[in-house]
Amino acid sequence: MQLVTVGRKYQIVIPKEVRKKLKGLKPGSKVGLRAVDETTVTIKSEPKSWVERTRGIAKDAWKGINTTKYLEELRNEWDRKY
Fold this sequence. Notes:
A hairpin with a 5-residue loop joins strand 1 and strand 2 (41-45). The protein has one domain (16-79). The protein has a two-stranded antiparallel sheet with strand order 1-2. It is built from three helices and two strands; from the N terminus they run H-E-E-H-H. The longest helix is centred in the C-terminal third of the chain and has 13 residues, at 67-79. By secondary structure, the chain is of the alpha+beta class. The N and C termini lie far apart (70 Å).
């Protein structure tokens, strides 16, 4: 655990060892702070954009499905006469 000092404006400096472990953290990056209890705070780096936050969210949605065949079946439905 790294100890830091809280400044007059309640600012802290993230120690170099911790910054190295946080991927993509650089000046101007946004981080989330959460008070766990009266003595514990967590810091979490946040992705830059919605695209980064949602990347891979449905990666398994089409797993095991032949997408070409599926699209052909959908197209054939359009041509059916009821």
